[in-house]
Design brief:
This protein is of the alpha/beta class. Helices cover about 40% and strands about 15% of the residues.
Length: about 400
């Protein structure tokens, strides 16, 4: 294993980076305004051994609820996810140890204000309250201006460029208590993005995760592959295993993360250098306070059960719980769903097929899945006999 070389930053009563142990993080999957449920979930995550717990805040009512959570769990290391409203930073900072913002979301509010001014505001708030910061870049919510500069099949360069650009902004403001995350639902892209970024900025602590990893055991396998390939290279200072789980089992994220770290430390590896997925691939988010209907969790489980008959087909189905990441992070799936309070948006690739109730969606999904399978079968039947063999021969000769 390569030794980590990042600088050290403080998050509440722990330090990450440098020679500190890799910290394990998770996130509440409750509606933040449901104070009792959110406190209960923080307790579950703490009991499972979470070093850092992230909570999403999007409204003034969420802020008020966060204050109550802090009163109930005064020693928890809390991170706030600012979602699309960076202005809430000054209201939540007194209650948390770290602020997380997504560069791709900073354009949602005060669109005429330069991004650098918004980042400066965040830094000033963090500095005043002694908070660390995370620059959190996600595959489905990268700044559109950056995406337009590169081919559609290159999703990694815009992510790395965005993270590096924001690091420079924080550096220029004299703020060094920050880390970065670059997440995708494809473990190979997570590996590549983090390796590329660490070559540019070996000093910056990295938070690792495969976003929308899905349900166990597949979600744990995808995450393990990324972590094994990165942590053995000295890359990664905090981790999160993002799994779609029922409320009472949310601590399993932490348990899985601890197990992976223990296996790596003791030389027990289960992955190969590249993740080659064959067969049905179900992507689903781990749920959080952004989810507007808790039926999303049952839907994800039902999709897994219903699609068992198609497990041999190389098809990706995405099940997303909210409007924030759902639209963008289903674009690359063959079939994608993102959930609203009373209906589910169904997509085929980037194209929307319609909105369906929670009772209707499984039947329509199966119809579209069968169409996709039959379409690919027709395409194979239409290929000239021996075309695969000729293609293989040509590739071998080259």
């Amino acid at each position: 294993m390569t030794q980590r070389t990042t600088r050290e930053i403080r998050i509440g009563n722990i330090h990450i980076g440098g020679s500190n142990p890799v910290a394990v993080q998770s996130m509440t999957a409750t509606r933040t305004q449901d104070i009792d449920a959110t406190i209960r979930q923080v307790e579950l995550l703490e009991a499972a051994g979470a070093d850092i717990i992230r909570i999403a805040v999007d409204t003034a009512k969420d802020v008020a609820a966060l204050a109550e959570v802090r009163k109930a769990r005064p020693n928890a290391n809390l991170v706030i996810d600012l979602q699309e409203n960076y202005r809430l930073a000054e209201k939540v900072a007194p209650f948390v140890q770290k602020l997380r913002y997504n560069p791709g979301h900073l354009h949602h509010i005060e669109r005429d204000k330069p991004i650098r001014e918004k980042v400066q505001h965040l830094v000033e708030v963090a500095r005043e309250h002694g908070c660390a910061m995370r620059i959190g870049v996600n595959c489905g919510s990268v700044d559109p201006a950056k995406l337009d500069r590169y081919p559609k099949n290159d999703s990694i360069t815009p992510m790395v460029e965005s993270a590096a650009e924001h690091c420079v902004m924080l550096d220029d403001l004299g703020f060094d208590q920050y880390c970065v995350s670059l997440k995708d639902s494809d473990p190979n892209k997570v590996i590549d993005a983090n390796i590329r970024f660490s070559e540019i900025r070996p000093d910056v602590p990295l938070h690792l995760g495969v976003t929308e990893a899905g349900m166990p055991p597949d979600g744990v396998i995808k995450t393990r592959i990324a972590f094994e390939q990165l942590i053995t290279r000295g890359i990664g200072d905090t981790i999160r295993v993002s799994l779609t789980l029922p409320f009472e089992r949310k601590g399993d994220e932490v348990t899985a993360g601890r197990q992976i770290l223990d296996d790596i430390a003791n030389g027990r590896f289960r992955s190969v250098p590249r993740f080659e997925h064959t067969g049905l691939n179900i992507i689903s988010c781990p749920s959080c306070s952004r989810v507007e209907n808790e039926a999303f969790i049952d839907l994800a489980q039902n999709v897994k059960t219903m699609t068992e008959y198609a497990k041999e087909h190389d098809i990706t189905i995405a099940v997303m719980g909210c409007r924030v990441n759902g639209p963008g992070e289903t674009d690359d799936a063959d079939l994608g769903m993102w959930c609203a309070p009373s209906f589910v948006n169904l997509k085929r690739g980037p194209h929307t097929l319609g909105q369906f109730t929670y009772d209707e969606i499984l039947g329509r999904l199966r119809l579209e899945l069968d169409k996709l399978i039959e379409g690919r079968a027709r395409q194979r039947r239409a290929e000239p006999a021996g075309s695969v063999e000729r293609s293989s021969t040509l590739h071998k000769d080259e």
